[in-house]
Amino acid sequence: MGGDAFRRTRAAVVAAGRIEFDRVLRDPAAFTPYATGVVWAESLLCAMDRAYERITGEECDRDTRYSYESGSNTEGWAG
């Protein structure tokens, strides 16, 4: 699964709610239906930007320590 696909499917798990997120966290095999089907939630990745713009009327100038792009936090994935 490429970076973009992983990012979108990861967002779908978040969109499924806390119970599902915790289930996938406890049992990585529970991620399989998200990874093998077309269950993506890409729009969730931009929700914060859209909310900020709607509330302030200004474009969100996000400057974060880590990008939300998959694999950008290499130290966090060190095993």
Description of the structure:
There is one protein chain. This protein is an all-alpha fold and 79 residues long. It contains four helices and no strands. The chain has helices at 3-15, 18-26, 32-36, 47-56. It is globular, with a radius of gyration of 14 Å. The two termini are 20 Å apart.
What is the end-to-end distance? 20 Å
Q: Specify the biggest β-sheet.
A: none
H/E element order: HHHH
Share of β-strand residues: under 5%
- Helical proportion? 40-55%
Shape: globular
Number of helices: 4
Specify the structural class: mainly alpha
Mean pLDDT: 79
**Spans of at least 5 consecutive residues with low confidence:** none
- What's the Cα radius of gyration? 14 Å
Number of E-type strands: 0
Secondary-structure blueprint:
Layout (H helix, E strand, L loop, with lengths): L2 H13 L2 H9 L5 H5 L10 H10 L23
Question: Which descriptors apply to this entry?
Answer:
single chain; 79 residues; mainly alpha; globular
Question: What is the structure about, briefly put?
Answer:
With 79 residues, the protein is an all-alpha fold.
